[in-house]
Structure formats: structure tokens, C-alpha cells
Amino acid sequence: MHWIWYFLGAIWTLGGLVQRARIAALAVLSPAADSAASPPPLRVRAIALRGVEVDQATLRAAAEHMAREGLEALDLIPRDASCRVVTRFLRFYQPNVYRAVWFARGASAGYALVATEELLERCGAAQGPTQVDGAGEIIEIADDLKRHANLSIDVAIAPMLRAGSPAGHGPGPFDAAYLGPAAAGLVWMIRLPLVLATLAGPFVADQAGIFALAACHLMPLVAFVGQSLRPADLARFALLRTPIELWDILQVTRHALRGPDAAMVAQRRPFYDKLLGDGFGALFHERREDCPACGGRRIHKLFETSDLVQGKPGPLRLDECPDCRMVFQNPLLNNRGLEYYYSDFYQGLNRRNWLEACRFVAPTSGTRLDLLDGLPRPERWLDVGTGYGHFGASAKAVLPEVAFDGLDFGSQLDEARNSGWIDEAHHGELRTLAPQLASRYDVVSMCHYLEHIADQRADMRAAWTVLRPGGLFLIEVPDPDYAPARTLGRFWGPWMPAQHLSLAPLDVMCRMLEESGFEIVKTQRLFGRFDVISVLTVARTWLAPDISMPWRPAPSFAARLRHWGVTILMTPAQSLAMGLDALYAFLARPLGWTNLYRVLARKPQEATDTMDGATRRDQAKMRSAAATAPPVAANDSPSREALAAKLSSTSTASTA
After folding, report:
1. 600 — phi, psi (to 5°)?
2. Which of 23-37, 162-176, 282-296 has the highest mean pLDDT?
């Protein structure tokens, strides 16, 4: 068994070589000969950790480097930065990916960064602080800058910048900023076993164990000696590497046990208490007795559950129509209920986690464009439910000449526009905005949007309105006919009964499109690789919901410990979820299982000849309402509009 420790020593050695290569890839700022000779080439501003001072010479050198390299933002690492800090940073920073991938996560060593005033304005941070209290805050700022700067952002060594010994550089907030809620689980299941095995090596594996321990302690020397970075604590860190690692793991664990920002949670708690002031019954409409797709009255209960994504309490029920296999929420959430379940999901407290989820699926979203192969290239595209614009970025990379617009609610749509991932932002509901966008677009896409709508036909008719004759309508939704979904029941993530109001099988979706006047061009069944990760996420919430959140009572220490323990135990599988989903997809293919489908439909060239009477009447009503109706107050608007007004106001408070 001694080979295990030889292998472990090789891992530490390889880690040192990888970090050495990453340090060597960092640019080194050159100080200007005369910092006062002429104005800097760019208007830039520095944001630094409290205790780190970015002097004018460093600021000018950064601006000159940014102008030379075409950058809008630059993270600065002091030459004497702590070896302990830089080692943590290099675990996450990949130089060959950072400036090549739009969706890469923003990276920072947590000391200071410099950004152009124009970029800060696009990010909504023009009036933000120039000093922050924690490295985690700088990392989150770097992530926002990366999303808005795309590929014009980098990291460099600043020889004139002094690291000092600033507070706020603890490993807990640092790892949490990069890894989110899984930080403690990952260090316990990956780093802790490595460190403990290394420490035990000399006692159980003789020379192999000594080799592994020596490789661990020499790793910082392999990485840093002879490089542009010259940490003052290099010798001490190399000597005390294993105890420092154990202490850092303890600090990450301690930070995880605290839960989210207590002040932010306390600020949001009255909001949820008010929504539930009249009980859960006040969140729902009356139960319906017929199917929203076919009108059948033989509907029956599929299952009852609660929100197993966020862990918000409350009874939720999905019904199914045996005649057309439509699955829908019944009773349906009203404005108040939608506000309760949508709040702090896409924005607010869950914003960072949702952005990570978007990064996870973004690389595959471009495959939707395959359905357009062999068809004329569009000029204008409207994506409905565009969120932060990840699909827009994928589409613009393939079709750069297309004007790609987005429609959604909340501030994330403005972020998508400011980042350049969409060209124009339309705030609101498509069926309300359709008259003013009539016949404007060649393509309308609704990817993972229609399942959030109770009356899907209304949005189909609105899509008809905004499309030009011959325009294309692209839909992607989870498939309720997916066999394992029935077996897994409430643990199949895409049911999402708190937000997914109706899920139509492929044949029902095609029939509704045809009844709305569209011609079906193509259909595609496919396997989205999200089953394993969604089942694990739902199971974790079911076993131990995050009770630190404002929709739950203040938790006890024992409850926190239970939640943290479940998270630790499930983290290995969740960390491997991408690979497990790929394996599951390989096994599901021979069985013909598909959990997603896409439909490409067309508005006929002679649209007025093929449009059914109901569609024409609905269009006339929409145009008449748009022309004569006064502005609609938020409380009187359709349910998702009321939700939009509420969310845009509450998300600002929750992210301030």
C-alpha cells in the first residue's frame, strides 16, 4: 500500500509545478518613468481591501498596462503577497481559461483591483466604495466585472503595491466566495483527507510517507522560488504547511456554520413574515377542475410536496390530465404566492448560486442554434425569459451579426444588456409588450420559460404578434413524459412545483402551437445533463434545508450542525455530478429516455390566411388595450407583472 503515499507525493509535486506555471503566466506591471509627466491613458479607479493602499504609481502602471492590452479591469497581486493567500488563489485561477472563456468565473487574490470608470458604470458600481472589509467582497466584485468585461480582464503582479497584513483575508470568506455553500464540504472531503493522509504517512508508510510529507512542505518552494512573486512568509509557510492547512480547513468550517449574512437575513425576514401573515392559503387561487390544455375533467393528483429547491415551506400540488398528460400546478399560485416563491431565487440572497447554475449550463445552450441549420439567418432575435443573458452570449458568439434582444423581469436583464450579452432589454411580460413589438423579430425563443406560465397559449399568440411573417419560434422545456420523472416523483428537479406552473408533453405543445396558427418545422428530443445534480440538490434540501434563510425561524446550533453535516456527506457526489450526469446520459440513451424537448415552429408567410379566429381576436384585443388603456398599476397587473415590480424593488434592497 506504500504506493498510495508515492502517488500522494506526486500529487503535491504536480500541484507545485502547476502553480509555478500559473505564476509565470502572470503579467508584471512596469512602473512608469515619470508618473506625473502626462495624464494616464485611461480613467480608472482602484478598489482595495482595507489596509491595502494603491499608490498613484501603481494606478498609473495598471492603467498603462490595461490600455496596452485592451483591458477594462485588472486584478493586482502585490509582489510580497502572502504565500498562503496566493496558494489559495491559484487553486481557482486558470490563466489559459480566464481571458478565453466568456463564462469563466471572476478571479481575484483579494488585495486590490483596478477598473475603468466606464466598466464600473456598466456594472452599477460607479458610486461604490473604494475600500472593502473582506477579500470575499473583492472576489464578488471581480466576478461582476468579469461578466461585464467578458474577455477584457486579467490578473497582474504589481511590484510597487505592498500587501501589508490587512484584516479580512480569512480562508472562510475566501473559499466561500469561490465555492459557495459547498466550500466546507469540498475542503472536508478533498483537502482534509489529503492533509491527514500526508501527516500520517511517516508513521504508516516509512519512506513513501516521508516523501509525501516532504513534497507537501516543499510545494510552496517549487511554486514560488525564482518567480516574480516573492512572498515574505514563504519559508514559514513551507515549514508549517500542514498545520496551516488544518487551521484553514477549521476556519472554512467555522465560516460555513455561521450561515449567510445575519444582517441581510434579518432585513429580509419581515418581508416573508408579511407575505405569510394570512397563512399559506392566501398564496393560491381557487383549485380548478379541468385541464388547462384540453379541458378534460378527469384530472388527478400526481404528487404533493413543498419547495425542495430553496426549502421554502408551504404545500404545493401537481395534477395530471390523463387525457393529454399535461402536468400543472393546482391550485395555482396567485400574485402573492409567486412573489413568495420567486423572491431571493434569481436575485437577492440566491443571486450568486443562480449565476453559478447559469455558468454550469451555458456551454451547452448554444446547441439550440443547431435547429436553425439550413434555414435563412435571422436579423433580429428576441429571447423571452433571458435572465442574465447567458444564451444571448452563446448565440452572439455563433451569429455575431444578429441583433439579439432579451425580455424578462428585474435588474438581471439590465446586467445582460450592460455586459453586451444582449443588445436591447425589454422589461415586462411578452403578452403586454407584444403590440409595441409587433412584426419586429425573425426569431422568438422561449427556453425554459413556458413551464413558468399557466396560460401557455396566450404567450404563443404574443410570440405570433412580434414575429414577422415567416419568423421562427423556438421552444425548449422539460419533458413530463420522461419515464424516470414519474419514478423519482418530487425528487426530479425539473418538476420545480414552486415555479413551474405547467408542463406540456411534446405532442400537446405541438397541438397548441398549431391551434395558435404556427407550422411545426422541427422537433428534437434530447437528454439534458441535469438529472443527477438536480436529484442530489433536491434530496439535500429535503434532508436538511438551509434553515438560516429568512423564510424559516432562527435556527439553533444543532440545526445548523445537521444542515452542515448533510452538506458535507453529499458534497462528493455533487462535486462529481457533471461526470455522473454524463454517465447517466450514456446509460439512458439505449433506453430512449429524453428529459428535454425542443420545438421549432414557423409563422406562415401568409400569416393572416392561416391564423385562427381566436388568435386574430386576441391580437385585436391586445392592440386595442395598448392604445386605450392607462398605465397599469403594479397591484392591478397580471400576476407575473406584479411579481416583476415587487422583485425589482426587493432585490435592490437585498443586494445592497
Report:
1. -115, 115
2. 282-296
Measured CA to CA, the distance from residue 437 to residue 433 in angstroms comes to 7
The per-residue pLDDT for 259 is: 67
Residues 6+ positions from 421 with CB-CB distance below 8 Å? 388, 389, 390, 392, 393, 396
Rg over CA atoms, the chain: 27
Q: List, for residues 361-389, the tens digit of each pLDDT value.
A: 777 788 899 999 989 999 999 999 999 99
For residue 650, what pLDDT is reported?
35
48 in Cβ contact with 111 (< 8 Å): yes
State pTM to two decimals.
Answer: 0.83
The percentage of residues in the chain with a pLDDT greater than 70, rounded to a whole number, is 91
Q: Where are the beta strands (DSSP E) in 518-641?
A: 519-526, 596-602
Residue 351 above 50 pLDDT?
yes
pLDDT: which is higher, 40 or 467: 467
Instruction: Give residue-wise pLDDT tens across range 93-141.
Output: 999 889 888 888 899 999 999 999 999 999 888 777 889 988 989 999 9
* Angle, CA of 78, 82 and 84, to the nearest 5°: 140
Label residue 314 left, alpha or beta by phi (over 0 means left) and psi (-120 to 50 means alpha). Answer: left
Integer CA distances (angstroms), 327 to 375, 451, 529, in order: 33, 10, 22
Q: What are the distances in angstroms from CA 135 to CA 49, 58, 131, 508?
A: 6, 20, 11, 51
Mean pLDDT over each residue of the chain, to the nearest integer = 86
Comparing CA positions, the residue from 474, 386, 471 lying closest to residue 428 is 386
Length of the chain: 656
Strands (E), 385-440: 403-408, 425-427
3-state helix vs strand vs coil in the chain, percent to 5: 50, 15, 35
Q: Percent of the chain, pLDDT > 90?
A: 57
* Cis ω for the linkage preceding 313 (within 30 of 0): no
Distance between CA atoms of residues 48 and 304, nearest Å: 50
CB atoms within 10 A of CB 621: 11
How far is Cα 613 from Cα 434, in angstroms, rounded to an integer?
18
Q: Which residue has the cell 463564462?
A: 103
Q: What 8-state DSSP symbol labels residue 98? A: H
CA pseudo-torsion sign 649, 651, 653, 655:
negative
Residue 9 near residue 129, CB atoms below 8 Å: no
From residue 362, alpha-carbon distances to 103, 105, 390 in Å are 7, 12, 6
Q: 639-655 vs 262-275: helix axis angle to the nearest 10?
A: 160
Residue 147 near residue 174 (C-beta atoms within 8 A):
no
pLDDT number for residue 36: 54
Report the DSSP pairing between strands 502-503 and 300-305: unpaired
Which of these, 308, 294, 249, lies nearest to 536 by C-alpha position?
A: 308
Asked whether the beta carbons of 348 and 649 are under 8 A apart, the reply is: no
Q: What is the pLDDT of residues 289-310, one digit of tens each?
A: 999 999 999 999 999 999 998 8
Three-class secondary structure of residue 523 per DSSP = strand
pLDDT band for position 245 (50/70/90)? very high
DSSP string, 176-214: HHHHGGGHHHHIIIIIHHHHHHHHHHHHHSHHHHHHHHH
